[in-house]
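Regression check, thymidine-5'-diphosphate case 356:
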Amino acid sequence: MKNILVTGGAGFIGSNFVRYMIQKYESYHLIVFDKLTYAGNLDNLRDVFDHPRFAFVRGDICDAQAVEDVIRQYNVDTIVNFAAETHVDRSIMNPGAFVHTDVIGTYTLLEAARAFGLERYHQVSTDEVYGHVEGERRARESDPVAPRSPYSASKAGADLLVNAYFVTYGVPVTITRGANNVGPYQHLEKVVPLFTTNALQDRPLPVYGDGRQKRDYHYVLDHCEAIDLVLHKGRVGEVYNVGTGQEIENLQMVEIILDELGKPRSLIQHVEDRAGHDRRYAMDISKIRALGWEPRHTPEEAIRKTVRWYVENEWWWRKVRDAEFEAYYRAQYGRRRVLAPDEVAGLSPREESAEA
Ligand code: NAD
Ligand code: TYD
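Current build output:
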């Protein structure tokens, strides 16, 4: 492995991965291939942009010719695919882009990996493909996928294709399924950066429904270490869950943010829930632990560290929080009804049984 094509490398996790890999491996070349959608941001890569072992190519993973050209030009031997449409709320507004990039784009990359006989194709997937996980159970890699949003359905479709290319054509693939990442350079549409920057501006934090949904908030560099490990020590054809293994309620996440910022709880505003909102994600991470990986941060540590990064990097988020983002914010949140306290109190038991 020496020339790694990092698709979607101008986004949140991909840019953290590039920085991590370029520092760790002195002989590796990192080539970012990114369409630069609204989520792609060259500021995320500014400290590696002039590195002699870094290259950036603007392109679409659905464009087979462009993918072939970049593989040939840089003698690529490995693809790590981060490129995707990634935000559940946007997938509810506009599912087509998700099916296109997440499914057709993955297919296009797999075809290239097959044609060029690449050493490895790694797919960066998500715990959301398992859908809502009941009770105390934790999703294992052998569980069937049961996605419930257009985003997670597209990601699950991609995972199934990746497995098919391993079984049918022998393409050397691996898949990691990551929990909710937090950390530097995450787009403001996602909950922790959104709530942090709202709170910094004394704007309300729109908590969906009762806020008692459970997520495993996981530090992005822990995730990057896990992907690195799977690339080097993972078994071809296998899936690995990656997270802290400790999910918390969204309201706890909100309280951690407010505490870290010294802001009042009165900023919390319960609003109408997301359609089809998965109540709980929870994964069993024993398989990746057995490979020799441990998360370095608990969800609380990950969230606090992330909040501090946003406080210290206002230059970055002010540019992202531009007129286009504010227009998105109005479209996404303007129509959401604010819930009265008695409505919020009545939500939990009804929702739990509706999900069962
Ligand atoms: P992101 O939205 O921050 O970045 C996605 C990047 O992909 C952007 O730079 C965008 O420009 C690029 N892109 C989009 N469509 C493209 C296309 N057609 N061709 C080329 N580039 C394209 O996403 P992220 O949060 O960094 O997520 C990266 C990957 O990790 C995704 O596959 C996502 O499903 C997965 N994942 C994310 C999380 C999370 O919590 N953020 C958790 C688990 C898995
Ligand atoms: P998000 O960051 O969008 O990730 P995902 O939906 O992929 O898990 O949301 C994380 C959790 O926060 C999820 O349960 C939805 C909730 N949420 C809110 O309550 N309010 C918001 O404004 C957003 C964006 C998310």
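Comparison notes: The first strand starts at residue 3 and ends at 7. The mean pLDDT is 96. No diff flagged against the previous build.
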